[in-house]
């Protein structure tokens, strides 16, 4: 009888812990990173190129898994054309021409991969590195907060085909699902770095799920205006920001992951999240919506093996930056290994109005040198007292990452779900 009771207790503990470990950070009773992701992309060998994509795509076009495509120069999908990419298709981007794929306003991309057959955009170099090529750009006609509701991307692209913004929040630019984008973010003299995936003025009917951007020399994901829903995104070892939001974007991001390296950063500093409403205040129409990011079940982690040493040596900075007149609503998310976890712009006055714009509830702050500060102000007592209120249910910890996550050190199939207690969900299939 005692043995039966013991077994029942163990089973109850396992079930309770399974539920508990799902509360904060990325969720799922088995790791959704399995099968379609690649944490060693430079080790993957692809078939030889058999087709070339270049110039302007003006008619409906389909790419097939049986071919390997070379993206050469800036390739524009335009004229309301639809580009359909079959699951398992590989697109190699030409590094010499700093290739990019630009989906212009009105055009549609349907890159709908499968968990067992993802679509891959990667460099055509034998030895690949960050910044080998441009990236993937999607331009839509959803609202932005700039005067005139229209803007152009600042890259080495055709000026006539670089505009985004409009009045259609529900516009549909297609689908990106089970897609990997690797080694993008080329720097072109006189222009900004390209990003892994840039969404500018994109509407909420567009689907973005299970997308992994790895080793981008620019931002992994940059969202300029528009209204987007993002789910199960991964940024892996970006040199710049993992997720950057600007120009009045209204964004919901859920169950997503950013993995930073202490040794990869830009000269301006790099963060897991950079939340802004503008770069220049004079270009913004304040009658329009300013940037609002609703973040649920995110895991933002520095993958250093010795976070404390890297913080003291100055290699690690803040995990999240929030600029003036921007808002973020963070819930049930994990921020681990930063200095500090969240940094507010020095332009943000600490008052009731602004504190309502930066919501932190049921958060898990771990191994951070401070949780939330204002720029150039080492006294954060008021902020710590406010967000430490029991009503917000925020949790603070100093555990090593290897103890915090289920399988942090696995360089092939890591599992960044939060570990609570000694009994955790198995990371086996």
TrEMBL record:
Residues 1-20 form the signal peptide. Keywords: Signal. This is Uncharacterized protein. It comes from Flavobacterium alvei. It comes from the Bacteria.
């Amino acid at each position: 009888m005692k043995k039966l009771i013991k077994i029942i207790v163990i089973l109850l503990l396992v079930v309770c812990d399974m539920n508990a470990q799902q509360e904060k950070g990325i969720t799922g009773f088995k790791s959704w990173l399995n099968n379609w992701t690649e944490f060693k992309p430079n080790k993957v060998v692809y078939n030889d190129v058999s087709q070339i994509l270049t110039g302007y795509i003006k008619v409906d076009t389909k790419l097939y898994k049986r071919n390997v495509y070379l993206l050469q120069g800036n390739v524009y999908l335009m004229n309301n054309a639809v580009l359909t990419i079959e699951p398992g298709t590989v697109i190699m981007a030409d590094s010499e021409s700093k290739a990019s794929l630009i989906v212009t306003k009105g055009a549609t991309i349907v890159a709908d991969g499968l968990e067992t057959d993802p679509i891959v955009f990667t460099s055509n170099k034998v030895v690949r590195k960050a910044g080998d090529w441009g990236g993937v750009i999607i331009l839509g006609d959803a609202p932005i907060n700039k005067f005139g509701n229209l803007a152009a991307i600042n890259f080495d692209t055709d000026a006539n085909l670089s505009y985004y913004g409009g009045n259609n929040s529900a516009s549909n630019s297609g689908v990106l699902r089970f897609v990997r984008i690797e080694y993008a973010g080329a720097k072109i003299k006189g222009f900004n770095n390209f990003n892994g995936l840039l969404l500018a003025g994109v509407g909420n009917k567009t689907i973005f799920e299970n997308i992994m951007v790895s080793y981008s020399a620019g931002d992994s994901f940059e969202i300029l205006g528009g209204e987007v829903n993002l789910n199960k995104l991964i940024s892996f070892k970006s040199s710049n920001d993992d997720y950057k939001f600007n120009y009045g974007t209204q964004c919901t991001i859920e169950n997503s992951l950013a993995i930073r390296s202490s040794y990869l950063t830009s000269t301006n500093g790099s963060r897991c999240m950079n939340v802004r409403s503008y770069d220049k205040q004079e270009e913004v129409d304040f009658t329009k919506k300013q940037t609002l990011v609703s973040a649920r079940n995110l895991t933002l982690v520095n993958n250093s093996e010795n976070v404390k040493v890297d913080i003291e040596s100055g290699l690690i900075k803040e995990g999240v930056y929030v600029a003036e007149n921007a808002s973020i609503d963070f819930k049930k998310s994990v921020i681990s290994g930063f200095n500090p976890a969240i940094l507010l712009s020095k332009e943000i006055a600490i008052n009731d109005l602004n504190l309502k714009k930066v919501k932190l509830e049921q958060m898990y702050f771990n191994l951070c040198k401070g949780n939330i500060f204002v720029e150039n102000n080492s006294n954060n007592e008021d902020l710590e007292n406010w967000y430490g209120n029991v009503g917000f249910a925020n949790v603070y910890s100093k555990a090593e990452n290897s103890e915090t996550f289920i399988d942090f050190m696995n360089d092939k199939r890591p599992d960044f779900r939060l570990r609570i207690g000694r009994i955790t969900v198995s990371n086996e299939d």
